[in-house]
Amino acid sequence: KQEVTQIPAALSVPEGENLVLNCSFTDSAIYNLQWFRQDPGKGLTSLLLIQSSQREQTSGRLNASLDKSSGRSTLYIAASQPGDSATYLCAVGVRGSRLTFGEGTQLTVNP
Amino acid sequence: EAGVVQSPRYKIIEKKQPVAFWCNPISGHNTLYWYRQNLGQGPELLIRYENEEAVDDSQLPKDRFSAERLKGVDSTLKIQPAELGDSAVYLCASSSGTGDKDEQFFGPGTRLTVL
């Protein structure tokens, strides 16, 4: 059974800092990996999708990497802003389009 | 382009009452998912549809939960009767179902409180 772990569970940083969120998974036989953002009381917003054949994806200040062999992914956020405050969820896609989620990292960026 | 639409956004019911949630996916997305998210946890898949067919319902508690997607577009998830432990956010997602490029897009969710 695929298990996804996100570390740290919570992170508080000052505005402007670069930061890294970590995601690890137990079964390397994945189709893809998605990073989501969830604001309080809201649904999930897709940030980045990395296909199994890719090593990284970039969107604006966000960069996500994937290392299937070690079962790890990182989400790098450059020059963090208070508006980046949210919970970030990592989800691993396996055969049959099933996503297995981690429990998320709650990020607070302080002005 | 409109995103995934869900209604209602909030629902409060007494235990043993029935409840239903509705979802309209992104236009053209053949695959529809229902997830349940408990407080402080990531979402867990309940059921996945490919057009009208439920292709993965292994996590759906079939004694009290049912779902349908009659015309392969919008979908309804029902709980009857509801229990206290069903309090959660119910999320609907859709995708175009294209292998490892299959990106899932989520609706705002329905927050269910069972008293």
Task: Characterise this structure.
The complex is a heterodimer of chains A (111) and B (115). By secondary structure, chain A is mainly β. Chain A has strands at residues 4-7, 10-14, 19-25, 32-38, 44-51, 56-59, 62-67, 72-77, 86-93, 99-101, 105-110. Chain A is globular and about 40 Å long. The mean pLDDT of chain A is 94. Chain B is globular, with a radius of gyration of 13 Å. Chain B has strands at 5-7, 10-13, 19-24, 31-37, 44-50, 53-56, 65-68, 75-79, 88-95, 105-106, 110-114. The model of chain B has no long low-confidence stretch (mean pLDDT 93). Chain B is mainly beta. In chain B, the strands form two sheets. In chain B, strands 2, 4, 5, 6, 9, 10 and 11 form a seven-stranded mixed β-sheet that branches. Chain B has a four-stranded antiparallel β-sheet with strand order 1-3-8-7, with no helix packed on it.
Total helices of chain B: the number is: 0
Largest beta-sheet characterization of chain B: 7 strands, mixed
Please give the radius of gyration of chain B in angstroms: 13 Å
Multimeric state = heterodimer
Radius of gyration of chain A equals 13 Å
Spell the H/E element sequence of chain B.
Answer: EEEEEEEEEEE
Overall outline of chain B: globular
Are there runs of chain A of 5+ residues with pLDDT below 50, and where?
none
Number of helices of chain A: 0
Number of strands of chain A: 11
